[in-house]
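Review form for a predicted model. The reviewer records the input and the model, then writes brief findings.
Reviewer: anonymous (R2)
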Amino acid sequence: MAGHGADAHPHGADRLCEAGDRVYSRAVRRGRVSRRDAEPVPCLLDLALLHPDPDDMDWLVPTSPQEVMTRLLRGVYDEVSSSQRRVGSAVAAFEWYAGLGPSLRQPGPAEGSAIRVLDGLSRIQAAMDEATEACTTEVLTVQPGGIRPEHELTEGLHRALALRGRGVRMRDLYTHVARHGQGLLNYLELMGDAVEARTLDEVIDRLILFDRTVAFIPANADRTLALELRHPALVGYLGTVFDRLWRLAIPLTAPLPDTGIEGISHREQSIAALLAEGHQDAVIAERLGISVRTCRAHIARLSETLGAASRTQLGVRIAQVGLDGPRHPADVTPVTLPGQESRTVR
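Model under review:
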């Protein structure tokens, strides 16, 4: 019966079920209750709140509430005493372990850790807001992908305006595709000379660097995990990477350089170079910040312009016209495209 009562009424004597409360209350008021009335609530017998009347076994008499309370308090006291003994044992054990080696200095509240994992968008946002408030000089960012969505620009606008108000300078690196986003152009116009932007064919993954003392980088593909970096060597390395990319990038206000081949755009030149390296369409699209569909449309135009009937032949033609690597304005090579007159390729 004890097992059945526990399954049907999983509670203790300190919080009775509704049916048990009614029967026990009636037993306390009347001095006893019939065994038949108590059958639906076997928990009262299991918890020793009712016990048989020695003068008449068909009736049950209640255990006095004072006795029940004393029993409950004794149980709580035993639990607390046991917990205190466990705490004392744990403290004694780890004090002994601590004495085995040299004293390890714990970082103070202001020091933080060299690498901190931020789990979840709310924690990432809170850490970014904290870094924004502490920033006094410059913010460097790398924004991969294509055209920046309006909601991303809006979410970061309050931080950018706060930085501008304190005289902080900002430099942003984007892919060339971002030039076609009206939202980015509106954002840069609003920020004025506080923000300078440049673009490249492709950039590294997202990076945000405050005052060259703290950096944030993604730690998984969907960017729900991030790393907050404060180690001087790591942050210095990332700052150097940014500086070198910045030197190679083209100001957003300047036009992209001409490829030197009629009918081939700057983006198609970039695609041709990645094709020559053996990359698949999806990889090329991700690196340049465009969709796979757009990437394939450019590849089709490349094939048509260069007179290639297959991907293999396209690779050969790309190499023949010199689109398989970086091009410099000073380079001059005569190239005859299929079906066209000879042109000068710079």
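Findings: Confidence is low (pLDDT under 50) at residues 1-7, 328-334, 341-346.
Further findings: The radius of gyration is 37 Å.
Recommendation: see findings above.
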